[in-house]
Amino acid sequence: MKVAIIGASGKAGKLIMNEALERGYDVTAIVRNKSKIDNTKVNIIEKDLFSLTKDDIKGFDVVVSAFGVWEEKELDKHSLVMEHLCKILSNTNIRLIVVGGASSLYINKEHTMILKDSPDFPEVFMGVAVSSIKAFDILRNKKDVVWTYISPSADFSADGERTGEYNIGHDELCFNSKGESYISCADYAIALVDEIGNKKYLNQRITVVSK
Questions:
Q1: Average pLDDT over residues 63-82
Q2: Which sign, positive or negative, has the C-alpha torsion 57, 145, 158, 194?
Q3: CA proximity to 82, closest of 35, 147, 178, 37
Q4: HSE (CB half, 13 Å, CA atoms) of 169?
Q5: Which alpha helices (H) appear in 36-125, and where do they start and end?
Q6: What is the C-alpha to C-alpha distance for residues 105 and 186, in angstroms, rounded to an integer?
Q7: Taking the CA of residue 41 as centre, how many other CA atoms within 13 Å lie in the half-sphere pointing to its CB?
């Protein structure tokens, strides 16, 4: 299976790339600067994301988007990137898997409140939360794209332990056996690459939490 990873030089993207390579997938990193990729086993396309065309990605089975920005002036790129990827993947069998956010997960059984709107949601993350939710809304309204959106837990730990164990939820914020909404980037990468092979959650959002 041929897998392209956009943002493969980032924290989540690099772990997903390495995990996919370990499983024997034919992996291509799509990055603006190839010098940031230190794995010699991976193929590389050095190109700006917005310059990608249908021809660039036509040979892949899966495109993983690990794109993310945090600066206030760049937050609108979340929606712009989603629109662009959906445009070049529309009416194809190429699956788009998005490294999503947790802010759109429901925090009550009635599904009337999402994490972003909870009273103690950190203001410092509000801009990213709003922009990532807008991007998710764009994706889930697309009828001509095969997609899966994978939300992490509220605590998405870049340097957390790789345990190889996780649980899957859907639209609600999940908690582990310690009562924590937590997943390490390493275990998230395992879950995402598992789903590449399983093809179980097509045109759905799932979330992953540590055990």
A1: 92
A2: negative
A3: 147
A4: 23
A5: 54-57, 77-89
A6: 21
A7: 12
164 vs 43: CA distance, rounded Å: 26
Asked whether 70 and 121 are in contact (CB, 8 A), the reply is: no
Query: Mind listing the pLDDT tens digit for each residue in 109-147?
Result: 999 999 999 999 999 999 999 999 999 999 999 999 999
Q: What is the CA radius of gyration of the chain?
A: 16
Distances (CA, A) of 90 to 82, 93, 144, 160, 199: 12, 9, 5, 36, 18
In 3D space, the residue among 104, 156, 98, 100 whose CA is nearest the CA of residue 130 turns out to be 104
58 φ, ψ to 5°? -65, -20
d(CA 141, CA 145): 10
Q: What are the two backbone dihedrals, phi and then psi, of residue 16, each rounded to the nearest 5 degrees?
A: -65, -45
